[in-house]
Amino acid sequence: MYQTSAALLPAANPETMRLLEEIATLEQRLHTMGEDGDCAYERAMSTLYRTLVEERKQQLTELMPAPIA
Hints:
By secondary structure, the chain is mostly helical.
């Protein structure tokens, strides 16, 4: 799970912090539901949450500066 403590990320911009918080929230919901859920609704929500986590991680990666060669 992603750490969202500002103390650990002092230079993080607000967009980065928002994405980290969203990822943490979505992952917590997945954990609470038990990853796959017990019914069709919960399984659908788990799939949605996993998709949203991956989208947020991709957005977070895009915010990172390119390494200097």
